Amino acid sequence: MAWQQAMGSHAAGGSQAPPAAGGGETQRTQYPYVTGTSVIALKYKDGVIMACDTGASYGSTLRYKSVERIKAVGKHSLIGASGEFSDFQEILRYLDELTLSDHMWDDGNSLGPKEIHSYLTRVMYNRRNKFDPLWNSLVLGGVKKGPKGDEKYLGMVNMIGTHFEENHVATGFGNHLAIPILRAEWREDMTFEEAVKLVEKCLLVLLYRDRSSINKFQIAKITTEGSTIYPPYSLKTYWGFSHFENPAQGAVGSW
Amino acid sequence: MFRNQYDTDVTTWSPQGRLFQVEYAMEAVKQGSACVGLRSRTHAVLAAANKPASELSSYQRKVFRVAEHAGVALAGLTADGRVLSRFLRNECINHYFVYEAPLPVSRLALRLADKAQVCTQRSWKRPYGVGLLVAGLDESGAHLYYNCPSGNYFEYQAFAIGSRSQAAKTFLERRFEGYNDYTPEQLIKDALSAIKETLQGEKLTSSNCTVAIVGRKDDGTLEPFEMIDAKRIQEIIDSMEAVEEAPAEPSSMQEEERGSDAAPMDI
């Protein structure tokens, strides 16, 4: 497989010559290495809540168990990332630079979640056009005072620059497993407690069904008062369901 | 033989600590026909007196839309002004492309000032010979800035630049304290009155002035920067003249002014 070729060529040297440094030939990111899984986020009464697990996989190995994949950006935004972890760290560096220079104008203006989202969209789309994408799905949430009062914002952008705004979003596996739940149960006026309950329900489904998720989660919220990223915690699981007992039973296939 | 030893390039100081070339550029602003700007909390108005270069020519435009939320009025070398307004348009459109949000007016004015400053510190450059009134709306409300060739810039409630602008400034100084609460209509009227002061007797008509406005509507949405059409300006001028020609019956507002702290000379 191409994946193994890319991994293996470093050790073996391979029959293909490695790309010449400065010879006009460059190697782009073709595969992610260390990846984080789903992020889910939704708007609630006072702001936006975001959640994900703290795992990072090396290929399909659950390699790292406590990495933070949700960070605060400036005063009004939260960013959550799934996908290549080093690319996320690079993005955080861009955002640090951006918010720092924004702060250094010292004129009372500050970038809101909408502006940060737009900026990231430009970065992601630009990189994919260079055939060197940042291998992430990013979630941006925040609250900022606008001319019509406090405005909640929640949006997503992926590695090819596709972007949108929604009341609830989920990346990766969450897009398949959490979105149906969110569509059924999300309300505009949820309290924080209700939002946490809903988020935990989604996380638990993901924990059961997504092999790269781990049982260590982080929840974060952002309101007009600012952002809070809560310490990691675990959810109670129950593996006694009959479908979990013998998963291969009745399954069509050789395994 | 030499009138001044220290004015052959912009970067040479005089022993008195002056940069003559920069000061000459500041003088160029005073040669152009007048522009005024004033703002309330929610709206900013720019107005300019249009002076044809000769009897047979038309006048040069002096008010430019920079973006949906901002515009400029300029006095001095109009050619330099066009270059600068193109620069401002570029800055705004680039910012909008990246952030999908308008560039705050203070940053717009600052970028302009930085551009002007560079020209005062390079021996092979010349300062821009134009003063710009930058008016616009951002999150913090309506703003008015004056940018001059020296690279300095100031924020104002109301200001006038260009030839005979002193008369307009005197007019604005008497009235600026109330401007924060003015309606757009009132701002336009005062802008026209201020322009009229600079005409020194010449009749103010819709054909020798330009007025533009930008602001925030009551529902919080943007009222984009727009030139007010000649017909409406003429109607406003006519209504102002009608008030002036009416018998000098003291209105309640004048009464109030007299009652408070107005000096006898003002009445």
UniProtKB/TrEMBL annotation, chain A:
Biased composition (Low complexity): 8-20
GO cellular component annotations of the record: cytoplasm; nucleus; proteasome core complex, beta-subunit complex
Keywords: Cytoplasm, Nucleus, Proteasome
Record bears the keyword Phosphoprotein: no
Location within or outside the cell: Cytoplasm; Nucleus
Sequence segments annotated as region (Disordered): 7-28
Pfam families reported in the protein's UniProt record: Proteasome
Gene Ontology terms: biological process: proteolysis involved in protein catabolic process
Protein name: Proteasome subunit beta
Family statement: Belongs to the peptidase T1B family.
Binding partners and assembly: The 26S proteasome consists of a 20S proteasome core and two 19S regulatory subunits. The 20S proteasome core is composed of 28 subunits that are arranged in four stacked rings, resulting in a barrel-shaped structure. The two end rings are each formed by seven alpha subunits, and the two central rings are each formed by seven beta subunits. The catalytic chamber with the active sites is on the inside of the barrel.
CDD domains registered for this protein in UniProt: proteasome_beta_type_4
Gene3D superfamilies: Glutamine Phosphoribosylpyrophosphate, subunit 1, domain 1
Task performed by this protein: Non-catalytic component of the proteasome.
Leader peptide range in chain numbering: none
From TrEMBL, chain B:
Residue ranges of domain Proteasome alpha-type subunits in the record: 6-28
Keywords: Cytoplasm, Nucleus, Proteasome
Stretches for region Disordered: 242-267
BP GO terms, sorted: ubiquitin-dependent protein catabolic process
Example of a GO cellular component annotation carried by this entry: nucleus
SUPFAM superfamilies: N-terminal nucleophile aminohydrolases (Ntn hydrolases) (SSF56235)
Localisation per UniProt entry: Cytoplasm; Nucleus
Principal subcellular localization: cytoplasm
InterPro entries: Ntn_hydrolases_N (IPR029055), Proteasome_alpha (IPR050115), Proteasome_alpha-type (IPR023332), Proteasome_alpha1 (IPR035144), Proteasome_asu_N (IPR000426), Proteasome_sua/b (IPR001353)
Annotated family: Belongs to the peptidase T1A family.
Subunit structure: The 26S proteasome consists of a 20S proteasome core and two 19S regulatory subunits. The 20S proteasome core is composed of 28 subunits that are arranged in four stacked rings, resulting in a barrel-shaped structure. The two end rings are each formed by seven alpha subunits, and the two central rings are each formed by seven beta subunits. The catalytic chamber with the active sites is on the inside of the barrel.
Cited function: The proteasome is a multicatalytic proteinase complex which is characterized by its ability to cleave peptides with Arg, Phe, Tyr, Leu, and Glu adjacent to the leaving group at neutral or slightly basic pH. The proteasome has an ATP-dependent proteolytic activity.
Name by which UniProt lists this protein: Proteasome subunit alpha type
Organism: Panicum hallii var. hallii
